[in-house]
Amino acid sequence: MGVRNFFPAGRTRGQTTPFLSYASGLGRGLETMRLDPRAIGETKEISRGERVHLHGPVETTLDPETRVEPPRSRRTACVAYSDVLEKDDEKATFVPPASGEAETSGGTTAASGGTTAADAWQGLRSRAPARPKTAAIAVFTAGATIALVTLVAFGAALDQVWLMPPLVASAALVFGAPTLPLAQPRSVIGGQLLAALTGFAVLAVAGSSIWAAAVAGGLALGVTALTRTPHSPAAATATIVVAQQQPLVPFLPILVAATVVLVIFGMLIGRSGVTPRYPTYWW
After folding, report:
1. How confident is the model at residue 246 (pLDDT cuts 50, 70, 90)?
2. Which portions of the sequence form the region Disordered (predicted)?
3. Sequence ranges of the domains in the chain
């Protein structure tokens, strides 16, 4: 059987060359290219759900198990079928997918253009990280609770306030996300210390006001970033120093001691074998 070739511009059209040695091979070639058997005439570009003109030849394979997936979006084949195709049909159509399978593009089906239930479900699925194992959740929750209760006990024994809101946020990072840079000892201890010093500097220059407290929180963020001690709860520490006019002593020593306590408990939990090892680095 001879098959009429489609050649690019500049070559003779209508020449015949052997393409298939047996008739059934033609059907498999058609199946692989996903062309309508009646396709003939001008070369066509086959897009999913559309019928548009093609530029250039289409490469195909005789193996029905092999699908040609060229790296570019434009597929080309080098054959037309003079004996079995109708010359008056100028359209190359896309073979619809098998029943039960809907090929979609951009959340819509190629055939009907409607959104399927599967597409809607995919859009609602969360991209949040997977939930930790139950054992890990139980261990780091217990560790955080014990560490914060220990701060309360120290405060009660010394008649000082050791449990501060920024330290609770620091504990959430140390125990809940021990592998993040924000949770490492350099950031927890150094970040809280530098943010507190920033707050005291703003307090000395601008006094205690809500405006100055906002400025202190923003400056603390920049200071911790510049010193490679990023720790988001530390910005709240600077704000508290200005808003509440905290004294340098005993506020600063208590703050440093409390962060050390959190790091120590974080180390103990990180060596339990259930949660990730902590710390990832010290300095």
Report:
1. very high
2. 90-115
3. 1-96, 134-270
